[in-house]
Specification:
Elements: E1 13-14, E2 25-30, H1 40-43, E3 50-55, E4 60-66, E5 70-72, E6 93-99, E7 103-105, E8 110-111, E9 114-122, E10 137-143, H2 155-166, E11 173-178, E12 188-192, E13 197-208, E14 215-224
Parallel strand pairs: 5-13
Antiparallel strand pairs: 1-7, 2-3, 3-4, 4-6, 6-9, 7-8, 9-10, 10-11, 11-14, 12-13, 13-14
């Protein structure tokens, strides 16, 4: 895979190294407010409680707080080409995440323990990304200390700030997918035996333009495991 130039190859972030995949994982409620490391403007837009991913022994690997209402241009109605979530805007805030220990992305980049914002992004369309995913939807991690506004972040600074999360020239991203019907009610964890990945099925509350109240919509965030591409 080519090194980072202007366009970036986006791959799924894994909370743990591949050796840890023999573990069982679950997602449970976190009755704790978003951390103070998140800027006040963003923290005020997040839910007052979150979720945490834990292993079979109950050890926490990551904690996640979702935005109370995520602006959406329309109600979900299926994919459009290679985009699964066309109702979301690139650079839009989805939530915040805290690693309680060092994290690792799909390229085995280390992501330091700490707090990050989570924003929606689209993988670039070029030859560098063939085989990574049939879809372009991802969620990027940005250092919370460098993300203080609810406003959408333009593509270039979005990618550059995300790369700072890994301390490299490559962004830190999560693979974002539609939630499988087999997952049941959110929150839930889904194990893909073939790819040996674990996905967290979480509910996004979409503030659809013109709607009186948020529309719940489940998505799957791959949190453990790596693509073979």
């Amino acid at each position: 895979m080519r090194p980072y130039r202007v366009s970036l190859c986006w791959l799924a972030v894994a909370f743990l190294p591949t050796a840890a995949l023999a573990q069982e994982y679950k997602i449970v409620p976190l009755k704790e407010a978003p951390p103070s490391a998140v800027a006040a403007e963003i923290r005020g837009a997040l839910a007052t409680e979150g979720y945490k991913v834990v292993d079979g022994q109950g050890k926490t690997y990551a904690e996640l707080w979702l935005r109370k209402s995520i602006p959406a241009s329309e109600k979900p109605s299926g994919t459009k080409g290679q985009i699964q979530f066309p109702f979301l805007a690139e650079g839009e805030l989805l939530g915040a995440l805290r690693f309680v220990d060092e994290g690792h992305d799909y390229r085995d980049q280390s992501i330091a323990k700490g707090v990050y914002t989570v924003r929606y992004g689209l993988q670039p369309v070029n030859g560098d990304h063939l085989g990574v995913s049939p879809y372009r939807d991802y969620a990027l991690l940005l250092p919370a200390a460098k993300d203080s506004s609810l406003a959408d972040v333009p593509k270039k600074p979005l990618e550059e700030r995300s790369a700072e999360s890994a301390g490299t020239s490559h962004p830190a991203v999560f693979l974002l997918q539609t939630a499988p019907a087999s997952a049941g009610a959110a929150p839930a964890m889904v194990h893909d035996n073939e790819k040996n990945t674990w996905g967290a099925v979480i509910p996004l509350n979409l503030g659809v333009k013109g709607a009186e109240s948020p529309t719940p919509f489940n998505v799957q965030l791959i949190v453990v495991g790596a693509s073979s591409a």
